[in-house]
Specification:
266 residues, alpha/beta
Length: 266
């Protein structure tokens, strides 16, 4: 059974390499494409305001990459500003792309790699003990149609504690434009669903796959998915995936889930 990785590039190809190293058949079939934000001044302005911000929450690896990419060369990461990530994948990217700006490991808050899930709910216990009254928090994310998306639940918890929360759009998402090889792979998955499993990490990706297959009558009977979050699994089932298994968002867990796949139960 071949695993089709749907994350945006470059994460899709990185995951394919890790899964192949684990002995899996895997191909990149991105369902989301990343592009620059509509307002080229938003991120540089956010960098200039960092000394007055207590916490910067990066919702994804791409959020961190695009935030770092648009940093004015003269602006460092302030010592009094913390960074947060929902999981170790994003945390690693944050440290890699912002180390040159001066971000230290001790300034980063993220759930442990052994956490049951990598999301806002598991990050919040690490943030909750800190004083948030009158503190400024910046949510760094992507979005579409010029609007930032993500982490509404965390925003509400922070505001309940008195924090002032704002968001900055570092990139825009849109449905991925497949190469001929990726289109052929998607066609094969539609024709032979028992031989393929879609690795889904975003509800938005599920919606894009539905759009891509609308001309083919939608998802085929027997379509399989591995979902890296319960909310994504719920979206996949509602979209028509016949078999959906939850998995932790690590290459090792995904490989194990594929190997133990029964093909008959959700």
């Amino acid at each position: 059974m071949k695993i089709l990785v749907t994350r945006p590039e470059p994460q899709a190809s990185e995951w394919v390499g890790l899964l192949r190293a684990a002995g899996e058949q895997a191909e990149a079939v991105p369902l989301i494409e990343i592009g620059p934000p509509p307002d080229a001044t938003a991120v540089p302005n956010a960098w200039a305001a960092l000394p007055d911000i207590r916490l910067v929450m990066f919702v994804s690896p791409n959020a961190a990459l695009w935030f770092a990419r648009q940093r004015p060369a003269s602006l460092p990461w302030p010592r009094g500003t913390l960074a947060a990530a929902p999981g170790p994948g994003t945390a690693t990217t944050v440290l890699q792309c912002l180390a040159d700006a001066g971000l230290a490991t001790t300034q980063l808050i993220s759930p442990d790699a052994n956490s049951a899930q990598f999301d806002s709910e598991h990050l919040w216990p690490l943030l909750a003990p800190l004083p948030w009254a009158d503190q400024h928090v910046l949510i760094v994310s992507g979005g579409d149609q010029g609007e930032a998306r993500g982490r509404q639940w965390l925003t509400e918890r922070l505001r309940e504690r008195g924090a002032q929360v704002s968001a900055v759009l570092t990139y825009q998402r849109r449905p991925a434009r497949w190469t001929p090889a990726q289109q052929e792979q998607a066609d094969q998955a539609h024709a032979h669903p028992a031989e393929h499993v879609w690795l889904l990490s975003s509800s938005e990706a599920v919606e894009h796959l539905q759009q891509a297959w609308s001309a083919h009558g939608g998802l085929p009977p027997g379509a399989k998915a591995l979902a890296t979050h319960p909310r994504v699994a719920e979206t996949a089932r509602a979209a028509g995936f016949t078999h959906v298994h939850d998995t932790r968002p690590t290459p090792e867990a995904v490989a194990l889930a594929r190997r133990t796949w029964s093909g008959t139960t959700d």
